[in-house]
Amino acid sequence: MRFVVRLFFGAVTGTLLLLVTAGTGNAQVPPSVGLKPSTGPAGSSFTISWNGFAVCRIINFFWDGTSLGSKVAPATSGQFGTAVPAGAAPGAHTVTATCTSQKETASGTFTVTGVTTTTPPPPTTTTPPPVTTRPTRPSVTTTPPSTTTTPPPTTTTTPPTSTTPTTPGTPTTTSTEPKPGELVLDHPSVQPGDELSASGKGCEPSRMVTLTSDGAEVGSAYTDATGAFTAAVEFTRIEAGPHTVIAECGVRLTGAVEQVVTRSSGGQTGTLVVLVFFVLAGITALRFR
Questions:
Q1: pLDDT given at position 166
Q2: Are 64 and 112 in contact (CB under 8 A)?
Q3: How far apart are CA 31 and CA 143, in angstroms?
Q4: Is beta strand 104-112 parallel, antiparallel or unpaired with respect to 39-40?
Q5: Which residues fall within 8 angstroms of residue 119, CB to CB, at 6 or more apart?
Q6: How far is C-alpha 69 from the chain's CA centre?
Q7: pLDDT tens digit string along 236-282?
Q8: Selected residue with higher pLDDT from 56 and 28
Q9: pLDDT tens column, 35-89
């Protein structure tokens, strides 16, 4: 009888463990690359996004076979900020993301736009008709009586000011244009999973920018011809509190953002773990009875 009871509890334990671990497997997605924007002039900035590099941790990026840089990939998907080479000719160019260790490659097409020059039409010469002068009659001057008109008083009504309430928990967007030597983050605070962008100005033109926070890389981009850039910021660690973001681009630019962490309940997985614990405790009690 005890053998039957142990066999029953063993089967229940195996089934619960399978339910806990059933959602951990993910179907492998083939590597792919996206460009945003996918058109622009030479020297303009754009972002390369990737997906499907399952086990790769370093991805190299190329423009028509010429290296644009590399990115440490903490997940199967992410973004890499860069810029169109200054000498790129107008037309379609291939942007490639390659994982050398796994020999996985994906590519996209970026179209470089040219400058169109319009030649103005030649000036038109118009010959005026001959002017015939007739004898001038003596002019008669009539002085009208003066009329004084008092304008009615003007009343200016100030329209009421409408204030839109701010919903608690909603991140505030900052649209301030960065000044030379300044790094501006578009949100003063973010929660895990929120998008965050950094903009800077005053760097060296056409130079790679590396963004770090607490010693870890959180983003990268290339400056344009004016020394400005915009890059996506992705924190690899979730730690509540203020964090300083540093941009290295020939000069050092700094900005600050606060991470807000909200606690949540464990959900179904926590309930299953507790249930497995009690089943195992019951099997132990039967064994030593």
A1: 41
A2: no
A3: 90
A4: parallel
A5: none
A6: 19
A7: 888 888 989 999 988 898 989 898 877 544 444 444 544 656 667 77
A8: 56
A9: 999 999 999 999 999 888 777 778 889 999 999 988 887 677 888 999 999 999 9
Half-sphere exposure of 203 (CA within 13 A, CB side): 28
Non-local (6+) Cβ contacts of 62 within 8 A are 68, 95, 96, 98
Q: Which domains does the chain have, with CATH numbers?
A: 30-114 (2.60.40.10), 171-263 (2.60.40.10)
Long-range residue pairs from 240-248, CB within 8 A, at least 24 positions apart, any chain:
243/213, 243/214, 244/213, 244/214, 245/183, 245/185, 245/198, 245/211, 245/212, 245/213, 245/218, 246/211, 246/212, 246/213, 247/183, 247/198, 247/200, 247/203, 247/209, 247/210, 247/211, 248/209, 248/210, 248/212
* Rounded (10°) angle between helices 2-21 and 268-287: 160
Give dist(CA 279, CA 13) in Å, integer.
7
CA distance 212 to 152: 65
What are 134-150's pLDDT values in tens digits?
Answer: 655 655 555 655 555 55
Mean pLDDT of the chain: 75
Give me the long-range contacts of 259-265 (CB less than 8 A, separation at least 24).
259/189, 259/190, 259/191, 259/192, 259/235, 260/189, 260/190, 260/191, 261/191, 261/192, 262/191
Cite the DSSP H helix spans in the chain.
2-21, 268-287
- Which pLDDT score is estimated for 53? 77
Within 13 Å of residue 111, how many CA atoms lie on the same side as its CB? 3
Q: How many CB atoms lie within 10 A of CB 210?
A: 15
Give 206's DSSP letter: T
> Which residues pair with residue 99 across a beta bridge?
104
CA separation for the pair 72, 58 (Å, rounded): 5
Q: If you average pLDDT over residues 169-183, what whole number do you get?
A: 70
